[in-house]
Amino acid sequence: MAGEEEVKLLGFWVSPFVLRVEWALKIKGVKYEYIEEDIFNKSSLLQQLNPLYKKVPVLVHHGKVIAESFVILEYIDETWKHNPLLPQDPHQRAMARFWAIFAEQQVFEGAWNALCSQGEAKQRALQGTIDSMEKIEGQLQGKEQFLGGESIGYLDIILGWISYYLEVWEEVGSMKIMDPVTFPATAAWMKRLLQHPVIKGGWPPREKMVVYFHHRSKALGSSPHGWLRV
Amino acid sequence: MDMGDEVKVFGSWGSPFSRRVELALLLKGVPYEYIEEDIFVFENKSPLLLQYNPVHKKVPVLLHNGKPIAESLVILEYIEETWKANPILPEDPYDKAMARFWAKFLDDKCLPAIRKAAFSPENEREEAAEEVRDCLKTLESALNGKRFFGGDAIGMVDIAANFVGFWLRIIQEVTGEELLSVEKLPELFKWTEEFVSCSVVKKCLPPKDKVLDVVKARVAPK
Fold it and tell me: Start and end of every GST C-terminal domain (chain B) (predicted)?
């Protein structure tokens, strides 16, 4: 294998998008330099590397810059071929990509909107998220281990945030989305994910998360938008 | 090529998303059966569409040897991986990542902005139009002097940008808002002309007057 790969990851301590990239790099055993960005006080480095979105994560590999977690994950999978994240079969790859988009647009955005909004808008977002969780539950039924099969894959990585963040958001937003009685397969999958060596112990500190999301959700108020958009 | 291949596309004549799928199949010389869906009236959707895309109940759906796939960009990736002629993505992982980035930018940012600029109430349109112009300026930078986003030939980003290449001008005409001007965005403007002049693309565009009627019906009057 070639010598030291030069891989840098610009991140933000509480970003679930950045975590995805870290998990992928760890699964592949790729060494990287992590650079913490204060996204509320963006460095000139971030502005230079990701001028379009000025967001993290940003992956830099041999000087080449890639943004957007979905895009970065596929890049990582194609560049380091061992421990594949996506299946080999084109139809199964399509299924993983389909569900990843669904999970992001319906579950992530739904939960985020429910967190940040009030009243009727909150109820609508909440119900929509729960309806979407049902579909995810359907995908997880019968899965012995992970969505990727025996080992965690692309879809597990995309959806993995729910095994830790969701409960924090539920507390901050005084809402209930993930009921283990209604979603037993999802609950079991979340437990397995939390134990996974690449994921375990890598979460941001819970108390800091609660404070952060409490402030953030209030600041965004009833018109949540783009900060956590992929 | 597998002679037993059965390829069907569930689409709608006016949908840029289903046209993307058809364009990719045409580019790769893949024969397919097209099934028109009435997407304007929910009750008219065929039982097959509801069976093949139970999650979203939308077009396009690609059916390959009985297996359905939904989401146009996901379908494009599938087509690319399954039929190797005339690749629509670059080989190099970094260039591929860039193509995916721009395709995503088109769907996540450009398209919603254009929708807003087209269909918002009149007093919100100017602000929405400004957002579109910013998006398009950014998109133009991806061309970087090339004839197409894909280089010398059409690629995934060109296919994904079909609504910019064709639908956008019709929207401009109806709303009277200047979104893609030849003076301010000369490279992108030139791209739209190159795009719609391609013989393969021409086969894949809906009749302009029919689209005009649909847009006129949806745009709030001034």
Answer: 92-214
Q: Is the Cβ of A28 closer than 8 Å to some Cβ of chain B? A: no
* Portion of chain A with pLDDT greater than 70, in percent: 94
Contacting residues of A for B105, CB less than 8 Å apart: 52
Q: How far is CA A157 from CA A178, B120, B123, in A?
A: 18, 37, 42
pLDDT tens profile B132-178: 999 999 999 999 999 999 999 999 999 999 999 999 999 999 988 89
Considering only CB atoms, which chain A residues are within 8 Å of B2?
Answer: none
Task: Assign A224 a pLDDT band (cuts: 50, 70, 90).
Answer: very low
Q: Residue A45: what pLDDT?
A: 86
Nearest to B195 by CA among B151, B170, B159: B159
Residue A109 near chain B (CB below 8 Å): no
Cα(B86)–Cα(B15) distance, rounded to whole angstroms?
24
Min Cα separation B177/chain A (Å): 24
| Contact with chain B for residue A79, Cβ under 8 A | yes
Tell me what ipTM this predicted complex has: 0.94
The residues, ordered by sequence, that sit 6+ positions from B171 with a Cβ below 8 Å of its Cβ are B114, B117, B118, B179, B215, B219
Could you tell me if B27 and B86 are in contact, meaning their C-beta atoms sit under 8 angstroms apart?
Answer: yes
